[in-house]
Design a protein that fits this description.
α4 packs parallel to α5. By secondary structure, the chain is of the alpha/beta class. Strands 1-2-3-4-5-6-7-8 form an eight-stranded parallel beta barrel, surrounded by six helices. The radius of gyration is 20 Å and the shape is globular. The longest helix is centred in the last third of the chain and has 27 residues.
C-alpha cells in the first residue's frame, strides 16, 4: 500500500494545492489536474449525485499519477466513510462537523483497530488488489488516510477547539458559503464576523498541530486565505472555472469581431 504523498506536507503546514471536482467526472480529469500541478483531488458526493460506482472508476484513473484521490462524503457516517476508503480514497472530507463526539466517531470509522472500528477488506481496490501481511496493511492504511473536518456551522465554530483536539482529525476546512449562512450573513464574506471566524479556525488548527484548508475560486481568495494561514488549498469549482474561461475567450472573439467590423466601415 503506497503512502499518502501529501499528508506529511499538509500536517507540516506546507502549502499544498489541489482541486475539487463537482461536475466533470470524466476519465481524463485526474490526468488533466495532475498535469496542471494539482497534488490532490476531492471528488464531491455531497452536492452532486456522484455515486460509489463512478467514484471507484475515478479513483482508478488516479493510479500511477502523482495525485492523491480523495472524496467529500455527504455525511460523516460509517457507511459513507468506510466504503469510500475501501474504494481507494486516500482522504475523506466530512461536512458539518459540529462536536468532538462526532469527530471521534468519524475517526473511528476511518481507522482499523486498535485506533478505530473500521471493518477489514484487503485484496480490494484500496490496496490495489495485492496480497501481503495484513498487520502491515492496517498500519499503512491508518497512517495514510487524511481526515478533513469541515467547520461550516455556528455549532462547529463554537466547538472548533474541541474538534481540533480529537486525535486523527488532520485538517480543519472552512465551508465558506455554509458558514456565512449559519452565521446569518449569507455570502457576506467581507463581514467582520465572517473574517473573525475564518481567522479563528486557522489559529485553532495551528495550535493543535492541524492544517487549515479552503476551496478558493479565484486569486483574491487564494491570497486572502494564505495570509490567514490556510495551507491546504483546492481550486474550484470545475464548472465555474470552465465557464469563466469560456466566457473570457468568447468576449475576446466578440471584441475582435467588433473591432474588425468598425474598421471595415
Amino acid at each position: 500500500m503506497r503512502p499518502n504523498a501529501i499528508k506529511a506536507d499538509v500536517l507540516a503546514g506546507r502549502t499544498v494545492a489541489g482541486a475539487m471536482v463537482f461536475e466533470f467526472f470524466s476519465p481524463g480529469m485526474s490526468a488533466i489536474l495532475s498535469n496542471a500541478g494539482c497534488r490532490f483531488v476531492f471528488y464531491d458526493m455531497e452536492h452532486t449525485g456522484l455515486g460509489f460506482e463512478t467514484l471507484k472508476w475515478l479513483f482508478s484513473s488516479c493510479r500511477g499519477l502523482p495525485i492523491e484521490p480523495m472524496v467529500r462524503v455527504p455525511r460523516g457516517e460509517y457507511t459513507w466513510l468506510a466504503r469510500a476508503l475501501d474504494l481507494g480514497a486516500r482522504g475523506v472530507m466530512i461536512p458539518m462537523v459540529e462536536s468532538a463526539e462526532q469527530a471521534t466517531r468519524i475517526v473511528e470509522a476511518c481507522r482499523y483497530p486498535p485506533a478505530g472500528r473500521r471493518g477489514a477488506a484487503f485484496g480490494f481496490a484500496q490496496d490495489d488488489y495485492t496480497g501481503g501481511d495484513v498487520g502491515e496493511k492496517v498500519r499503512r492504511a491508518n497512517a495514510r488516510t487524511l481526515v478533513v473536518a469541515q467547520i461550516e456551522t455556528e455549532r462547529g465554530l463554537e466547538n472548533v477547539e474541541e474538534i481540533a483536539g480529537v486525535d486523527g482529525i488532520d485538517v480543519l476546512w472552512v465551508g465558506h458559503f455554509d458558514l456565512s449562512n449559519f452565521l446569518g450573513i449569507p455570502a457576506q464574506f467581507g463581514d467582520p464576523r465572517f473574517d473573525r471566524a475564518m481567522r479563528r479556525v486557522a489559529e485553532v488548527a495551528h495550535r493543535h498541530g492541524k492544517a487549515a484548508g479552503f476551496m478558493a475560486t479565484d486569486r483574491a481568495w487564494i491570497e486572502r486565505v494564505r495570509a490567514m494561514g490556510y495551507s491546504m488549498i483546492a481550486i474550484g469549482t470545475d464548472q465555474g472555472l470552465l465557464g469563466a474561461a469560456v466566457q473570457a475567450l468568447v468576449e475576446h472573439v466578440d471584441r475582435a469581431a467588433g473591432a474588425k467590423g468598425a474598421g471595415a466601415r
